[in-house]
Amino acid sequence: MTEHRTVETPDEPTADEISQQKQVRLEKRERLIAEASDPGKGAYPVSVPVTHTIPDVRANWGDIETDTATGVTVGVAGRIVHVRNTGKLCFASLQSGDGTRLQAMVSLASVGEESLAEWKVLVDLGDHVFVSGEVISSRRGELSIMVESWQIASKAVLPLPNLHNELNEETRVRSRYLDLIVREQARKNVVMRAQAVASLRRTFDDDGFIEIETPMLQVMHGGASARPFVTHSNAFDTELFLRIAPELYLKRAVVGGIDHVFEINRNFRNEGADSTHSPEFAMLEAYQAYGDYNSIADLTQKLIQNSAMDVAGSHVVTWADGVEYDLGGDWDRISMFESLSDAAGRTITPETPLAELKQLADASGLEVPHPIHGKYVEELWEHFVKGGLERPTFVMDFPVDTSPLVRHHRSIPGVVEKWDLYVRGFELATGYSELVDPVIQRERFVEQAKLAAGGDLEAMQLDEEFLRALEFGMPPSGGMGMGIDRLLMALTGLGIRETILFPLVK
């Protein structure tokens, strides 16, 4: 229980009120600077003599008995998120960066009349303040610092939002720094993301993978079907592309002998933005020499399940809407063509005539961009099957004409050894048995070039340098790609703008 009293939740201040508060705070800033005896102090001192963090104090003395003193003096600093000034004793809650709070008690007896009066005049909500004093437990049992001296560490000239009101989504996204100050879930999201990425790296390290970095500025975009961002290099006087995928460079590394390789870095795709897509996103890609799409699926399942354990302590994660989602066990693997046939009530194979697929799409109200056979199959599959997948599911064996970097299936004509992993309605990862035959790869690139000439802005270009690398021999390999932002979506149930700390917004 704290020393603070519950009060009626006030409305958010108007723009005029914020402007007035800013002016008052700026005047306090001027006073702090003018009255500072040391140029290193004032409203923004270079440093303050912190001896302990707020979490340190909580960890060391959080269980002391009510109304006791420890005899230990500490110096702590934090942001003021609650303040109550009454007579001879003032109370404030100091918050550390991780959200841990500690009460500061500023009394006439401990700091003197002048210092107490300055506290009441100069200290505002949102200020960073340093306090030094004895660690005690108050009469209400609240762990506190009985302040003996204090100092402004950084003066806030704008007021914090009302901490009793929920920030709207636009404010959370556009002013993430405020979101981090006032909302515990926002801070947890940052920690969970860091834990998940660290877990991925541990799993890769345990399995003998090497992490490398590949170029983000590329002379030719490739590695995925996506529309790129285009820029210009003044130094080279040439058009460059922000990468849409690191695939073609990671495969060069496999050709060079780095048999187990991965990268976690940024990708950029000049496409739409919604609850599962962002123009800029973090991507994991990995390649496993002498593996295939089955072994890389096993690895992907392990990566995600280990992340769940390291973030949530269990394979069963609790999403933001309260739903418990089980990522444990062995995940289902279903055939795209067989599951589509079952759901549509008719047999659909790689040999099904295009006219028949078009008729089914029209009857289902689907508009298929760039209407080739594989596009129809995939759009129909999403219409009939995707929404019914609840458990994590690998959807196996895709049409050949939509997967130009994947090898033909070893026993089923007309499909390639590719899977997409779906988690509760969205695609989380994709994996392949990689195409390593340079002759067939060239044929696939030529077909892509024809699509590009026909207006498909997502089609790949013919990459001669990559083909040359393949001609030196790439071992049979399995490869996978997974969005880090989407991994966090799977672990938390949040939308992509909540899992990206600073998402792009218009």
TrEMBL record:
NCBIfam families linked to this entry: lysS_bact (TIGR00499), PRK00484.1 (NF001756)
Similarity remark: Belongs to the class-II aminoacyl-tRNA synthetase family.
Residue ranges of the region described as Disordered: 1-24
EC number: 6.1.1.6
Residue runs in coiled coils: none
Keywords, alphabetical: Aminoacyl-tRNA synthetase, ATP-binding, Cytoplasm, Ligase, Magnesium, Metal-binding, Nucleotide-binding, Protein biosynthesis
Binding site for Mg(2+) 2: 427
Pfam families recorded: tRNA-synt_2, tRNA_anti-codon
Protein name: Lysine--tRNA ligase
The organism's place on the tree of life at top rank: Bacteria
